[in-house]
Amino acid sequence: MTRITPYSSVHLVREAGVNTTIWNAIPSDEVIGKTKKVLETNGIKVTVTENGDNALSILKNLVPPGAEVMNGSSTTLMEIGYEEFIAGNETGWDLVHTRITAENDSVKRAELRRKSVAAEYFISGVTAISETGEIVGCDASGSRVGAWPFAAGHLILVAGVNKIVPSFDDAMKRVKEYAYPLENARAQKVYGTASIIGKYVILSHERIPGRTHLILVKEALGY
């Protein structure tokens, strides 16, 4: 079940002026299955599930007790209840984000944030997924995607099937024409300043067995 947050896309689409018909559609089971097969051929484990509640349960089971865990800021993670879950301090995990926010020294806090991309487990949303097997993430600073290529020991990605598009070119268009305008609208409300697309990361193949796991949810989640 999707949890609508104050910054879910439903509250921002009009302001952002985005086309939900093109970029936020739910694909057919055939397309979902095809995409899953291509991604797994590329070394990325994919678990397809029906809703956000199931996705959160799967995520919890993927991370062992005591593991070092960091996550990138993500509307998708908020909508499946992940941030509410970790706020309860009952995860049994070593939450790097808690250490970062507890550090009052700005220099030390920045250093902890930089090192956080190398956490044992890094959890993130994604921006677009192509049927041809590419997963695209983007961010202003890189803190949400710096772990993706290699740094994190294990990478757990969560995405709604609304992120699936036919080609890599479409994935890049989705970033610019849909995800960025929504994130920019959110940033204006939260930070009082515009966002930018500062860093792109594209996963097209995972060489380390079992490192990257995509939880693909049959709902429209995030941007």
The CATH superfamily is NagB/RpiA/CoA transferase-like
Mean pLDDT: 96
Global geometry: globular
CATH class: Alpha Beta
Through-space gap between termini: 17 Å
SSE order, one letter for each helix or strand: HHHEHEHHEHHEEEEEHEE
Number of helices: 9
Percent of residues in helices comes to 25-40%
Quaternary structure type: single chain
Structural class: alpha/beta
- Unreliable stretches: none
- The strand order across the widest sheet is 1-10-7-4-2-3
- Supply the CATH architecture: 3-Layer(aba) Sandwich
Mind summarizing the main beta sheet?
6 strands, parallel
- Classify the fold: give the CATH topology: Rossmann fold
Tally of DSSP β-strands: 10
Radius of gyration: 16 Å
Could you explain the architecture of this structure?
There is one protein chain. The chain is of the alpha/beta class and 223 residues long. It has a single domain (9-217), classed as Rossmann fold (3-Layer(aba) Sandwich), CATH 3.40.50. The chain contains 9 helices and 10 strands. The chain has a 6-stranded parallel beta sheet, with helices on both faces. Helix 7 (96-102) runs antiparallel to helix 8. The model has no long low-confidence stretch (mean pLDDT 96).
